[in-house]
Each structure stands twice: as structure tokens, then as C-alpha cells.
Amino acid sequence: MKKKAFLLLLFLAVFLTGCANTKAEDVFRFEAHEVSLTIGETRELKVILGGVSPKEEIVYIVGNSSIIGYEDNMLSALSEGSTKLTAYVKSEPLTRAVVNVSVTKETLSSLRINGATSMLIGENATFTAEVTPSHLSNKVIWKSSDNKVATIDTNGKLTAIKAGNVTISATSEYDRTIVAIKNVEVKYHDATNIDIEFTSGEVIIILSETAKVKATVSPALANPNYTWTTSDAKTVAIDESGNLTAVAVGNATITATSVDGLVSDTIEITVTWAEATAITVKEVTTDIYVNDTFKIEAIVAPANANQEVQVSLSNEQLASISNNVITFIADGTLEVTIKTADGKVEKKIMIVIKPIPAPTDIEFKTADGETTFDEKQSNIALIIEVKPEHALQEYDIISSDENVATVTAKGNGYVLNTKNPGTVTITVTSKVNPELKKSITITVNAIE
Length: 448
Hints:
Layout: H1 2-25, E1 29-30, E2 34-38, E3 42-44, E4 47-48, E5 58-62, E6 68-71, E7 74-77, E8 81-89, E9 92-104, E10 110-114, E11 118-120, E12 124-126, E13 128-132, E14 140-144, E15 150-152, E16 157-160, E17 164-172, E18 179-187, E19 193-198, E20 204-206, E21 210-218, E22 226-230, E23 236-238, E24 243-246, E25 250-258, E26 264-272, E27 278-281, E28 288-289, E29 293-295, E30 298-301, E31 309-313, E32 319-322, E33 325-328, E34 332-340, E35 346-354, E36 361-366, E37 372-374, E38 380-387, E39 395-399, E40 405-410, E41 413-418, E42 422-430, E43 437-445
Parallel strand pairs: 2-9, 11-18, 20-26, 28-35, 37-43
Antiparallel strand pairs: 1-4, 3-7, 5-8, 6-7, 8-9, 10-13, 12-16, 14-17, 15-16, 17-18, 19-21, 21-24, 22-25, 23-24, 25-26, 27-30, 29-33, 31-34, 32-33, 34-35, 36-38, 38-41, 39-42, 40-41, 42-43
């Protein structure tokens, strides 16, 4: 009895299972109840008609069309989120099938900008974005850090505007947290020519005056800056702005060189004296005698005129001249002409040359006025002067006893040297007038 009951239960279980399977296959449904996709992914998803006739029209409804799309049995993931896809039989709206769809983002591991690292002003270049994984969207938002240096449009076209450095950034539209950057240098074009212009139209500057030079670099898109140098700063100095200063008479070459060092230009500058307008000469304020000398000292105006002068004498029998120093050789009246170096201004002075006066007196003494000394002293200075001042200073000097003291020449004068104890007379006699004499008596003491 128990065996029969078991067999009956087994038959019912098999029968019911078979009926259930048959019913499941006949249900109007999607192939899956839950679908997970990543953005950009597509998947075929069909409806199983079950007991619905293939001739029936099936209507599909997307819950949120911004998240998913569905067409020709193809499900596509558009954006992150969750929604439902519903299908129903048009003739029997209550016959429905629903699938839950969740869309997630696939992680963007890297974003890189492809493009040039340097450009010339005025050039255009297109930059592209490369993503990993490569199947993800490479759409980005382009941005330039400095639109004065370079601009970039929505398609990645970069336009170089002026020299400088700029940072280009690309922000992923797929994942706004992912940003790539690229540094781009915008360069000047190579300089091909540079021309110097002297603003005054002349290349001659008067001493101590200033002038200005400027230069133009070609082409227009080359770096307009340049540097100045002078071949001789002691003649013509120049600053970084092209201001010239005439330092000394002469010539100097001024050079302008482009910043990139590719081209240069030169100009020759000549510095000249200013034209003399007046001359002032030091006057003769003392009596002039034969054998005297007088130096011509002249100041030429303006101060930046040549200060050199030419001196000539009316009578070379009365005087001679060397390096503007006149030596008077005979008495008489002398006319001296002083001219500026350019000969445009002159000045005349008259000099009366007096004859040498006859000597009338002699001053003679030791330097300290003492007349007593110890034996064996040397280099005792003697003061000898024939008067008047302009009389010939020619005389003889002798010692009455050279065993006691001697006189020797030293430099332009004489010195006394004591020898042994005793008394000696030192006598000075004018060579012009032998009758004119002066003596001093010197006592030499023994050293105990």
C-alpha cells in the first residue's frame, strides 16, 4: 500500500513540473528580467512571445530615454542611471513584459592630449584627445589658460596669437573629474632683417651732446626686441633704449642685434667738437724780463669746443715758444696771437720784455742763520740770492780755507761741509759785477 502511494506522488510531481515548464515557455516576457550595462555598451534583447501570435504588434516603452535606447531588439546604454523597458501587445495592453535596466559608467583610466608643444605666432594646429579605454567617448571641453597667447575652439583648433607660454586643458565630457593638460610655447618667427634709423638724420654728434637711434626687426611676427652695443664706449656710449652720448671726439660703431641673434645692423657715429665762439686768455700781471718764461693758458667757449690753441709770436728774435710756453730772449715789445684750433676765433696780447737788471746786492747766509758748527758736519744748506730778483743769478763761491770747510754744489744750490776746527770765510762774488761780493765767517769747533 505504501509503495503504491509513493508512485502516485512521484507521477503527480513529474506531471506538475511538466505543466509548469510548458506555461513558462508560453509567457510573454523579455529574455532577461534584469540587465546591467555600461555607458556606450549595446546588447541584443528580445521579447519571447510565448502564446502571443507573431502577427501581433508589440509596443515598446523606454522609461527614461536619456538613460537607454531600444531599437530593433538592440538595447543601448546612454547615460548613468536605472530605468525600465516595457513591452506590451497592442491589441491586448495588459499583456506586458518588463525588464529593469541599470547603466553604470565604465572607469576612464587616462586622458591624453595629442598635439604640438611649440608653435609660431599666427599658426593654427588641431589638438586631439586620446582616452583609455579607447572605446569610451573622447569628447572633451577644451580651454586655454591665456587667450592673449593662444585660443582653442571646441574642436581643438589652437590659434597662436602672441609669444609666450600657455597651458591647454582637456576635460572629459564622459567624466568631468578627468583633466589632461599640455604646455605649449608660442614663439616668434626668426628675424630675417634689422635696420637702424638715426633719428636726427645725421651720423655726426657734437661732443657732450646726446642723440637717439632705433631699429626695426623684420618680419613683423619676429621678436621686435634687440640689443645695442658700441665698439668704443669711451667715444660713444649707448644705453638699452638707444640713447647715445658723445663722450669723446672720434668714431664708434653702433650695432643693433636681434634677440635671437640671427641678424644685426651697424651705423658709424662721428663725434666732433662744438664750434668755438670765444676765447679767454690769462693776462700777464707781472713784469717780464729777458730769460723769463710765461705759459699761455686759454679757455675756449663753449666748454665742448676744442680747448687746444695755436700760439704765434710777432718777433721770434724776442722770444721762442714750445708747448705754449714762451721763453723771452731779448728786450722789446712782443705781440702774441692765440687762435682756436679751428682758426675761427683769435685773441692778441702785448708783452713788454724788460732787459735783465744789473745786480745790486747779494743775500748770503746759512739756512738757519747760524755761523758756528762742529767739525765734520755736512750738507749745511746755504741761501744765496742775487738782487734784484730778475738779475742774473750767476756767481762764484769760494772757501778761504778748505782744510776747515768746503762748499759743494747740490741740486740747484750749495752746501757747506766742515772739516777741522778753525775759522773760514765763505765769499760769493757776482759774475756780472765782480765788485759785488758778500761773505760770511764760519767757526768750526772741535768735538771733545
